[in-house]
Structures are given as C-alpha cells and as structure tokens.
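Structure (tokenized):
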C-alpha cells in the first residue's frame, strides 16, 4: 500500500469516526438525558455491605474480590478490573490495605469485596496518542492506550492467529505499543505480507 492509499485510508477512518461521534451526540441530545451515553450503560460498582456494629475489624478473605477502578475525569473514562487478592492482601484489615496501596483510596471494604479507586489525569493523553496491538478471541485487536488495564478496545480486526507468522504471534501475545493510527495501519499491513 502506498503513502497515498494509506493517507486516504486514514482520512476515511477519521471521517467515519467524526460521523459516528456526531450521530451519537445528536442522539444523546435528542434523548434529553443528562448522562453521557456510556455512563447510562455502565454498570456501577456496588458498595460492599457494612460490618455489623460491635464486631471485630473485618479482614480480606483469601477468595475475596478486589475491584480496581481507574478514573480519568478529563476524558470521561473509567476502567474497572476485577482480581483475586494476592497473598499479602488476604487477612488484611482496611487500614493495612490502605498502607499496602498508598496511591489508591479504599472506596468500600468488606471481607468478601474491596473496591480501590485511583484518578489518572494523564490517562487521556495516552488513550489518544498510543495504541496497543494484541490478540483477542483468536484475532488481532487494537486498543486505545499503551498498557493494561488502562486501555479501551478500538477494534478487532479480521486477522486471525492462524494467518500469522510465529514471530508475529509471539510479539502480539506480549502486546505491541505504537504511537498513532498511521503506525497501526503500517504494522497491520506488514502482518498480511
């Protein structure tokens, strides 16, 4: 693919994204909703149940659920990840957990479920500038952003793992960070030749 075709392809993608954005903004405005569309569809993280009064301090169960919430208010994004607690967290009380994760705020705490939150102001720039190319469900996928879990799925391509060279497959399994959509198009083109 020559530079002219690449530029045309990139211009087509940008035009399509602008069109989709305008259509979504129009639909949102006409709906009369005061929430952004992704806020209305987002499943909120429910609070943990409070501990009964007069009981000993609760500690995290080994099979509890840790919920990490990354917020980027400047670009209206929130990424939620669910994890099992590492060994050092199992048995920790709320105060110990706050010491183990000093950059996070403990939003809710129970022995079965802990919600930790953190705000990232710089995340918006990463989502706009960088792309992470990796595999999803046996296909090559492109994400906005540069590192897990602070990425948002952009697209899943038609390229399947059975069409990839072993060296490319290994690189994609690890994840490839690129800057900008032009670099992504060039990389994807290289996978098919």
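Design, position by position:
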């Amino acid at each position: 693919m020559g530079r002219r075709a690449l530029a045309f392809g990139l211009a087509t993608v940008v035009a399509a994204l602008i069109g989709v954005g305008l259509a979504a903004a129009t639909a949102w405005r006409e709906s009369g909703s005061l929430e952004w569309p992704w806020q209305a569809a987002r499943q909120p993280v429910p609070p943990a149940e409070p501990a009964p009064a007069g009981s000993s301090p609760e500690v995290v169960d080994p099979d509890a659920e840790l919920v990490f919430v990354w917020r980027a208010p400047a670009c209206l994004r929130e990424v939620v990840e669910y994890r099992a607690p590492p060994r050092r967290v199992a048995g920790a009380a709320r105060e110990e957990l706050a010491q183990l994760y000093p950059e996070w705020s403990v939003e809710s705490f129970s022995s079965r479920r802990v919600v930790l939150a953190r705000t990232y102001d710089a995340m918006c720039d990463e989502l706009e500038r960088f792309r992470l190319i990796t595999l999803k469900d046996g296909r090559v996928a492109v994400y906005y952003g540069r590192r897990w879990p602070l990425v948002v799925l952009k697209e899943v391509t038609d390229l399947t793992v059975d069409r990839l060279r072993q060296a490319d497959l290994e690189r994609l399994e690890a994840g490839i960070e690129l800057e900008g959509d032009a670099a992504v198009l060039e990389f994807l083109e290289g996978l098919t030749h």
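Reviewer-requested clarification: The chain has a mean pLDDT of 77. The first strand starts at residue 65 and ends at 72.
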